User: Fold Steroid 5-alpha reductase C-terminal domain-containing protein from Galdieria yellowstonensis.
Amino acid sequence: MDRSPWRLGSFLIKGAAGTVRSSLHSDVGNRTLQRFGLVSSKSKKSSGRHMSPAESHLSLCLKHVFLQPRVRLRSIMFIHFLCTPFVLLLLFAWYLPSSPEFWVYFALHSARAWLWILKNLCFPDFIFSKQKVTISGTFILFALLSLYWVAPWILARNKQYFAIPFPVMAFFIACWGVGIGVNFAADAQKYFMLRERKVLIRDGVFSRCRHPAYFGDLLSYASMTMLSAHWLPFLIYVFFFITVFLPLIYRKEKNLSRYAEWPPYRSETGLLFPKVDRSYLRTVWDSYMKQSIDMTLECTNSHSKNPPKTRINGAGVGTTVSFHPESIVHQDHS
Assistant:
């Protein structure tokens, strides 16, 4: 029996989201219903016997509800993120919190939710767009996503809150902003590059990190979790990271390993955090200095080709006229 944590996480995702892709009249679906005692195991084995109309209708309804994927995963997350600001407003109306941490969390989580909606309207993620879940899996997945509302609920109902110092709060906000930027940049680069052709992306935000989108999610959600200053949101986030993010990362690593450029790319990059060493910093610095020198030489050459000409006007004041192809610049000298 394989007890790998990756297989365990994948099993939890499939069981929670209800992504069992059984056919309507497949043997897998019948065996599942027989296992729970919803369909008689002798109905198909007995020759000349058929299921009763009531039993057939019951099995058909159960297969439709529990075994047939119908709802896109993107739609469920869209509804969840759309409801997030209104849920936080309801928490404020019910508990009337006075802590600044609640309003900072409200701003970060609401902006994160609606920016996710905007991102998926402009450049959607392939996983959320293609994956479907069953009707029962829809309710289970929405209930799991609602665990992200535990942190604002704790901040709203806790009257004697732990005051976070403003420098620490500013650090959390900065980490949230960096995480959102990295996540959106990675998803945009992946969407527009893979739309043209299927290649192993090795430049841009993927040049030093193999999964920058998950790194951005880690920064943004970790900063909001730390803002609640409570152990329960932290435990929930660790649960999601182990059961959702790690299996997705493992599956993506397995898919990318089919490329020939994968071994050197894997050695040059980090899994979640960017792999930055002294040679990389030296390369970035040399590239920056080379670009600065090239721009300076280009400006010097353009001025040497068009030297300024001086003429005396009627008032006896020298005027330097620089002739350029685009415009003429006048400079007065006393």
User: Anything to note?
Assistant: Residues 61 and 67 are 10 Å apart (CA to CA). Residues 100-131+149-268 form one domain. Residues 166-196 form the longest helix (31 residues).
